[in-house]
Hints:
Layout: E1 2-5, E2 21-24, H1 32-45, E3 55-62, H2 79-82, E4 87-89, E5 96-98, H3 102-105, E6 112-117, H4 124-133, H5 150-158, E7 168-171, E8 196-197, H6 220-233, H7 235-240, H8 245-261, H9 263-269, H10 276-282, H11 286-300, E9 304-310, H12 318-342, E10 349-354, E11 358-359, E12 382-383, E13 387-392, E14 401-402, E15 404-405, E16 412-414, H13 419-430, E17 437-439, E18 445-447
Amino acid sequence: MFRVELGKSGRYCDGWTRRSFLQIGMAGMGSATLADVSRARAVARTAGHASKETSVILLWLDGGPSHLDLYDMKPEAPAECRGLWKPIRTNVPGIEITELFPLQAKMADKFSIVRSLHHDSGDHFTGGHYMLTGRGGASGADKVGKFPCFISMATKETGARRGGMPAHVAVPHAMSIGLRPGYFGGHFLGNQHDPFDTGSDPNADKFVVQGLQPPGDLTIDRLQDRSGLLQHLDAFRHNVDRSGVMNSFDHFQQSAYDLVTGPTARRAFDIDAENPELRDRYGRHDWGQSALLARRLVEAGCTFVTCHFGGWDHHWNLKTGMENYLPRLDTVVASLFEDLSDRGLLDQVLVMICGEFSRTPRMNDGGNGGPPMSQGTPGRDHWGRSLCCVMGGGGVQGGRIVGATDAKGEVPADRPLTPGDLHATVFDVLGVDRDLTAHDQFGRPVRAIEDGERIHELF
């Protein structure tokens, strides 16, 4: 194994630094981790569950976006609750969203909004753990994940939709609340079920996917020569092995080798092949190019792609933060839905937008216990008692609102839902049995979804 330090980004409100490390394993011709992914894919094929050809793109808003300022506005609430922006009508009668989302307002028929989610925790780590594993256990005092990500559970079952591609890819990196891969990891399933981490910004001039490049000066031609040599050397092992284990081993190693040396993944990750005008439409920044790359990856055969959009921890200066972030997010989301629709992929690809929690319905005074405005202009603090998730495509019907919060947006007033309900819905989209179980490190069966049902209003 070798480790590449990828530097620092900002700090969260609790002082946790987003220092990230990418671990890449390269063994022999390819990556042992990728071979292990192939083994998991083979298990999935023999599990007996009917799998669809659908995929999912998750836009993860790390840090926690405010539901009241995005998709669940309360214009009749007191001023300190309703926020700074007005709602606007969408192309679906009765659905309104923030005025900073004019592009999404024109295509609200393509997505639905779940407004009654809750897990009741205002801790970044507890909230992230709930949203990504469906369970509690982690906190700011104990950040270590306790269960696999629901995505790992699903893709362990499905594998990739097409050979030569990873099942789950994270762009530009797999991160939850500064932890990498954090609660996106496979945990007791093994790190072979962590996301395939691109490790770099697809908006960079020289975007290179770490893990698809041979180490050092080992070229593709040399890998291919080495493959041929090993095939000859392995002939003796084949002759003496009567159990079939060696043939199986070779199959998995070959799959890993194909990912590293084959054309499928290389073409999919080659974002420079995209039309420059389409790249411009998504936005020439990490969010826009990550979403565009996600579309390329699901089109090529990935089952799940996670895009990390960080920086949503707006305790202070909410106005500046939202007026910077929301127009950018609006462009990305609208471009992604339009692109998928234009390519005839929207029925096969579910798009999800959420973070680990939301923000307080009441804005603070910018003082953090000191004089008002002494820490900056007002913002919103942590809130897990009500949050939103946008879902569209993949068989999910657009133009619907599921659930509702009370007059101030504090708690669900109708159809309260949990992260487990989200996960069960995603499993349904992917064709994965929600009663799926896996065995932990002690051999105990653990349900992929501890508690949750498909959100039937979305179908």
